[in-house]
Amino acid sequence: xxxxxxxxxxxxxxxxxxxxxxxxxxxxxxxxxxxxxxxxxxxxxxxxxxxxxxxxxxxxxxxxxxxxxxxxxxxxxxxxxxxxxxxxxxxxxxxxxxxxxxxxxxxxxxxxxxxxxxxxxxxxxxxxxxxxxxxxxxxxxxxxxxxxxxxxxxxxxxxxxxxxxxxxxxxxxxxxxxxxxxxxxxxxxxxxxxxxxxxxxxxxxxxxxxxxxxxxxxxxxxxxxxxxxxxxxxxxxxxxxxxxxxxxxxxxxxxxxxxxxxxxxx
Length: 266
Description:
This protein is an alpha/beta fold. The protein starts with a strand and ends with a helix. It contains eight helices and nine strands. α1 (13-24) packs across α7, α2 packs parallel to α3 and α3 (91-119) packs parallel to α4. α1 links the parallel β1 (3-8) and β2 (28-34).
């Protein structure tokens, strides 16, 4: 039986690449979402969804459940970048970024979880960023949103696994620059004191993305996770992580596993 997969933010960038690759395998039933579904030409359905709009989220999930009776996998990829000094961003801009990168995720997960609990299985997969655990200067608000996302997902990983619902986090080191250019915001203010160092930092950050992972490395990891979910594994680093960083991630998960066992024992 084909797995029913819902891909949030599948119109372009890594979301579209994932949707196309999964569809071409023929053993998945793909649904993708966009704020402009009529502009998205594809052989699989595109549905309107705005992460700010709870009713649009509920409508998408209800439509798929009505047609397919279940959603097996949620691939959640909403993302907004921001590269400027923290002080230069207005509170309204920071609120928008956190709404997309964190609160939108919570809205979607909370809407789909009742259906996964009812069916007795499910898999929630998120794409995060290295900035979630290595704070990046001039990406402070972005780093904060990704760190918060990681903490939230780590927590529900343990909350849900006894219900046969897996939670996985794909953590790329950096991937191609078009992901950055498609959905980024510039700060409302310009403060000259930051100009020189910010110029150098932006150049280096954008260079990192230009030379980042090809999508195929992320896609192959996602397919592996979908086909062989591991209820005991949460974090999947992809790309140019040094050995020390991989060790740090391993020790982090081991420590959290030990803490979870302590708080959950009777």
